[in-house]
Amino acid sequence: MGVLTGVRNLSRTLRLLVGTSVRVAPWQALLCLGETGGVILGLLQPLYLAWFVAGAVGHDTRQMALAAGAFVAQIGVGRALVWLGMNARFGQLERVGYEFDARIAALTASVPTIDHLDDPHFLDQLQIMREERGSLGLALNTLLNNLNGLAGVVGVVALAATADPRMLLAAVAGIPGVLAGPILARWQGRAEAAAAEPGRLAAHLLQVGTSPAGGGEVRVFGLADPLRGRLADATHAWWKPKVGLAVRESVVNVVVQVIFFGVAGAMLAWLVHDAVSGAVSVASVTLALLLVGRLQGVSGTLRDIIHNVAAMSRTAGRYLWLVDETARIRAAHHGVGTPPDRLSQGLVLEQVGYRYPGHDRPALDGVSLVLPAGSVVALVGENGAGKSTLVNLITGMLRPTSGAVRVDGRDLTGLDPGSWRSRLAGAFQDHQRWELTLGQSVGIGDLPKRDDEEAIRRALHEGAAEAVLTSVPRGLHTQLGVSWPDGVDLSGGQWQRLAIARGMMRRQPLVRVLDEPTAALDAATEHQLFDQYARAASGGRQAGTITILVTHRFSTVAAADQVVVLDHGRVVEHGTHAELISRGGHYSDLYELQARGYR
């Protein structure tokens, strides 16, 4: 089964590489074979030299002239073919590499959910693909090198057999080196797997230590030395498997070389003895001497071919794994239904649970809620209570591991994920800082209106971000981000205001999510913003929009129609602000604790 699986994987890899190469540039792919033709012609050099030596010994000038002419012609034609093939190869590598990069980007972007981004196995595979990203584009190069190497092996062995059958003993002596190929390939695969997680950690620590975002904390808290220490440990753990692999490879190489040259030396001594006695021709001995070095390379070439094929299969295999994995995830989200134009009933959560990949404890467990159309719902709770997870389930970013989310009575999994999210709007605490122009940074909240300045200005007003617009030199056309020519930087609060404005671009979404939208804002701006929210929510009631507000600041939730209190992934209370205060339960305790801090 293992051999059959390996053959099937190799066949799939070859179809992928050859098919992609032919698809992106058919004639260029054909010209790449010119290099192989040049390699085959180059194999004839020892034969022509042997003819020349035999002609010289026999005083046959005609044979010497023919051999010399053939030798020179072979050099010219062979080099022309190699030049043609190499130039075609370089162009093809760029095309194929770009094609795979584009496909990987398209595949990862096509996944409708984000739960795979919390899966350590998925992240480790992506880390290896990042480290080996060039290898995927170069896999075609590896394939062509293997083709050239295989042509060389066949040609050298054939020439050796014509010189003297005993020359094949030297080829046989290279078998241990060939057999070492699969072993070395397995060792390399294990080394790559062992290095993936520490490599990911090292990259993260390096990014933390060199990015402006972490610069303040690193310096204020004196974290430079501990960070360097952890980075050194992670880097050591990253390279340790690779260094160990290099040591083992060196030992194997020494052993196989000793075996080969021991057998080859004995074989040549035998041939020379026979040549002295006249049993073997001078041409045969000359050809044998010229081919010994190449025969020594046969085992190394075969081993390299096996090693390269294994590496190529692993690299292409990870891409194929990504193809299969993204296809599996998309198949699991097979909904094709269209969401309603407006909500008439609302959202209903029925015993919804969610467990992150690799975690034993569920992030949400048995959550049942009714969120009526047109209502304003506040989600409150301490950090880790499950608020953001619940939001991700409602927006379809995550799929429940148990229970169901229903939209006007229809299971959310039956709706097309893209269509559902096109009817949502939101602002998030962990927002992206889009370094576009200010207008574009806001406008992309509703792509069809991304250049509509009137809609952008309205969103800035509703997102309490007009002060950001007046603070920059070129208004909506100001480039954001100091890494760009004439770019300006913004404060954390200003970036968050733009994120809120971006979430206000869509006029009548089915659901508007505001996940900790005021974390970086001052009290005055927060008050202004919630006045805007109240007006937007009032307008949303007419369209059936459900406004979901996630916040730690309890003073902002009093106007909500329903307050949902989460604790350790469960709903412990829900009701209006007044109802929950009168109950004197968990919400009341948290509210009083926070209110006490403002007295």
TrEMBL record:
Presence of the UniProt keyword Transmembrane in the record: yes
Lineage: superkingdom: Bacteria
Organism: Actinopolymorpha cephalotaxi
Start and end residues of each ABC transmembrane type-1 domain: 147-311
SMART domains recorded: AAA
UniProt KW keywords: ATP-binding, Membrane, Nucleotide-binding, Transmembrane, Transmembrane helix
The keyword Transmembrane appears for this protein: yes
GO molecular function, a single term: ABC-type oligopeptide transporter activity
One cellular component term from this protein's GO annotations in UniProt: plasma membrane
Matches recorded under Pfam families: ABC_tran
Protein's cellular compartments: Cell membrane
Name recorded for this polypeptide: ATP-binding cassette subfamily B protein
Domain ABC transporter residues, every copy: 347-593
Membrane-crossing residue ranges in chain numbering: 24-44, 64-85, 138-161, 167-185, 250-270, 276-293
